[in-house]
């Protein structure tokens, strides 16, 4: 499969997954979840879905658990919406890149404020 096709399928899956999670998944454990990216294998058989969840660690793990449990339903919806004969097997992963970048920003801000008084000397 060409890389361009895989990228297009990945992007379209991201859009559809976001809509499915927002509108069709009725599990109350699914909190404020955002699909950040989808990585599809070259043969379109497997897809890693990265999800960012706002909330405590408990809420994050509950959301991933609920999405994993609903993976069969979500996979069927993706196949129907994208008109695919076989939809990729979905593996949901917690995306912590937002938290990581916020932590880096906080460290940089701390460094800047600690250097500011000494810059005036």
UniProtKB/TrEMBL annotation:
SUPFAM superfamilies membership: Ribosome-binding factor A, RbfA (SSF89919)
Keyword Transport: no
Entry-linked PROSITE patterns: RBFA
Cellular component GO terms, alphabetical: cytosol
Organism lineage: Bacteria, Bacillati, Bacillota, Bacilli, Bacillales
One Gene Ontology MF term: ribosomal small subunit binding
Compartments in which it is found: Cytoplasm
GO BP of this protein: maturation of SSU-rRNA
Similarity comment: family membership: Belongs to the RbfA family.
Subunit structure: Monomer. Binds 30S ribosomal subunits, but not 50S ribosomal subunits or 70S ribosomes.
Protein's recorded name: Ribosome-binding factor A
Pfam families documented for this protein: RBFA
Role description: One of several proteins that assist in the late maturation steps of the functional core of the 30S ribosomal subunit. Associates with free 30S ribosomal subunits (but not with 30S subunits that are part of 70S ribosomes or polysomes). Required for efficient processing of 16S rRNA. May interact with the 5'-terminal helix region of 16S rRNA.
Organism: Alicyclobacillus acidoterrestris (strain ATCC 49025 / DSM 3922 / CIP 106132 / NCIMB 13137 / GD3B)
Keyword vocabulary terms for this entry: Cytoplasm, Ribosome biogenesis
Predominant subcellular localization, coarse grouping: cytoplasm
InterPro entries: KH_dom-like_a/b, RbfA, RbfA_dom_sf, Ribosome-bd_factorA_CS
NCBIfam families attached to this UniProt entry: rbfA (TIGR00082)
